[in-house]
Amino acid sequence: MDDFELIFTMLGERSTTEIHRTEDSKGVLKLKADSNAGGIIAGDARKQLEKRLGRSVVSNKNFLKQNEDKKLSKPK
Fold first, then answer.
1. CA separation for the pair 40, 16 (Å, rounded)
2. N or C, where is the chain less crowded by C-beta within 10 Å?
3. What is the four-CA torsion angle of 63, 43, 41, 62, rounded to 10 degrees?
4. Its pTM surpasses 0.85
5. Sign of the C-alpha dihedral, residues 10, 11, 15, 16?
6. DSSP E strands: which ranges in the chain?
């Protein structure tokens, strides 16, 4: 994940949180609608930037290292 991906993820999450707080949302359906709205806001912002730059801002980088062994140690 690169900087732009992190920024747009944070924008979606923060937008969703602010919509929820402003509208005092209750119930699963309303919260789902709030999260959808936050995602649309971040998605639209990403698409506008990509249009202006003429390239995608989505990377194929992965924050986690590939093939990293995660073995549990046996209790002594």
1. 10
2. C
3. 0
4. no
5. negative
6. none
